[in-house]
DNA sequence: ATGGCTGCAAACCGTTTGCAACTAT
DNA sequence: ATAGTTGCAAACGGTTTGCAGCCAT
């Protein structure tokens, strides 16, 4: 209908962010552009620190506070999602068309995304049964890779 | 078989804790007793702060560090579980015979526990399909009470 | 007596905030 | 010109840790 149907990666964030900012009199700054660019072209679930590192490849002077503030903005604009995988550090990922939950390896930190329709439906039903209106849910399965090689064997804390 | 079958509340923690400590040459101290007592007779999902308050009704001199350390001990002993409901503060609850997940009201902070067999089974299947051995999972549904009165209307931040 | 435990205070660490200078509009 | 934005550093809040003295064993 409206051009290319990309594989849920390209979520056309630029116009969305622009209008979000415009609507409330906020500005499109150089830093916001650099941060959003870095964020949306990063695969995975970066922490602020990881994103900051990437941002500084482009602009060495960006401060962490600005990255935090911009991430909050992206979350508010519905373009990013924040998750917690139990290590006390927030992680962020682009909001893609398809919602998913996470499976985290306790050993190597590898994060696998999954989606299960039945679980989603049951969650809604359960909430409804308790007279709650679901806003958001977070489901993290902590587990251990049973494969021969944890792909990120020493990624966590070298 | 072994005496009374209690409604999953009484989990017979005293002997379990005692043997856990004994096995590794740790000691049963006055503070540990007071803290465990307070913890297991508390309903709900107390934070360290809440537990400390209760503990100090009995012993004014207990320090927070001791409460943190004892809670860690209880978790290690498999007698307590730690959860995070998105407010940056850890909450603890006794490990009861029946596992359950949580439904949290964004408005009033009320926490409802639920259990769904199908979800549990699906989680295991999903993990297995990705060659992960489930260790633990945490599922939190953030929602809003739709009932006329949020029972704890102003409990969060007065 | 000995080695674990405690309370205190300081350290930690991720995140937020105040502020003066800066910049998009 | 004006109000939003930035980087810095300080503040924050929950949690952990070092240490000297204490206490269960």
Report on this structure.
- The structure is a homodimer of 158-residue chains.
- Chain A is 37% helix and 21% strand.
- Chain A is an alpha+beta fold and 158 residues long.
- Chain A has a 3-stranded mixed sheet with strand order 4-3-5, covered by helices on one side.
- In chain A, a hairpin with a 5-residue loop joins strand 3 and strand 4 (111-114).
- In chain A, helix 2 (30-40) packs across helix 3 (48-58), helix 2 (30-40) packs across helix 4 (64-76) and helix 3 packs across helix 4.
- The longest helix of chain A is centred in the middle third of the chain and has 13 residues, at 64-76.
- The first copy, chain A, is globular and about 45 Å long.
- Strand 5 (132-145) of chain A pairs antiparallel with strand 5 of chain B, so a sheet runs across the interface.
- The structure holds a DNA duplex (25 and 25 nucleotides).
């Amino acid at each position: 209908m409206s051009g290319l149907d990309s594989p849920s990666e390209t979520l056309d964030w630029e116009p969305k962010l622009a209008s979000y900012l415009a609507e409330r009199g906020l500005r499109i700054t150089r830093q916001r552009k650099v941060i959003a660019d870095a964020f949306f072209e990063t695969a995975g679930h970066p922490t602020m620190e990881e994103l900051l590192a990437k941002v500084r490849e482009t602009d060495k002077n960006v401060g962490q506070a600005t990255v935090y503030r911009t991430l909050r903005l992206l979350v508010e604009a519905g373009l990013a999602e924040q998750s917690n995988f139990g290590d006390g550090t927030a992680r962020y990922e682009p909001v893609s068309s398809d919602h998913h939950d996470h499976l985290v390896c306790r050993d190597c930190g590898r994060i696998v995304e999954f989606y299960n329709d039945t679980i989603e439906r049951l969650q809604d039903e359960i909430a409804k049964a308790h007279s709650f209106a679901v806003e958001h849910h977070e489901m993290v399965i902590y587990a251990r890779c049973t494969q021969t090689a944890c792909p990120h064997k020493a990624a966590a804390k070298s």
